[in-house]
UniProtKB/TrEMBL annotation:
Signal peptide bounds: none
Originating organism: Amycolatopsis pretoriensis
PANTHER family membership: CALCINEURIN-LIKE PHOSPHOESTERASE DOMAIN-CONTAINING PROTEIN, METALLOPHOSPHOESTERASE
GO MF, any single term: hydrolase activity
Name of the protein in question: Predicted phosphoesterase
Amino acid sequence: MPKALVVSDEVDERLWTDAVRTVSVDLVIGAGDLPYDYLAFLAGALDVPCVFVPGNHDPDLSGYTRYGGLSMKDGFPTPWPGPAGGINADGRVVDVAGLRFAGLGGSIRYNDGPNQWTQRQQARRARGLVRRAKWRRRRDGRDVDVLLTHSPPLDLGDRADPPHRGFACLHRTIDVLRPKWLLHGHIHPHGEPVPDRVVGQTRIRNVVGHRIMEFS
C-alpha cells in the first residue's frame, strides 16, 4: 500500500526543512505550481521518487529529452529546468512506486504564459494520453491508478472566473481510464473545506497545499 506526500500550489515552509525527514512515505506527488527546487528538496530529503505535472505558473518543460544521461533540447545539451530526478508525467503514462500515473498538466489558456491550453488543445492531448494508457494496458493488463492533473474537470471543483475553469475533456478521460483517483491543484480553497467528488469509481481530490495519502 504505497503512501505519498502529495503537494500542489502552496509551499509549506515547515516541509522545506530537515523536519520533513520525519515523514514516512514512498513517493512525492506534485500537482503543479510549486518551485521545482521545493519538489527536488522533498524527494531528496525523503529519499523517494517524485512524479509531477507542471502548472500554469511553472516553466515550460516541453521539448526536453534524456540521452546518455544528458538533458537535451533541439539536439544540444541543455540543463533541465525541472526538479532534479523528478519524473514529468505530463502527457505520459508512468509507473512509480507501484502506482500507474497518467498525467495532464497545465490550465485553461487565459494569457500567453506557459502550460496553458484551450479546451480543444487539451482535448487533443487527453486523447493521446488515453491511447498511451490503452496501449500499456494491452501490454501488461494494468489500469491507471492515478490521473494526475493541475486543473480539475469542468464543473467539478473549478471556479467561474476564466483562469480557473476546468477542462471538459477530463470527463471523457475519467470515463475511459476509470482511475481510482484524480488528483488536481490550481483551485485554492482559502481555508474552506473541499470535499472529494466521486464520478463512477474515480475519487476527485483537490490537493492544494499538502496531504499524506495511502493508495490501496
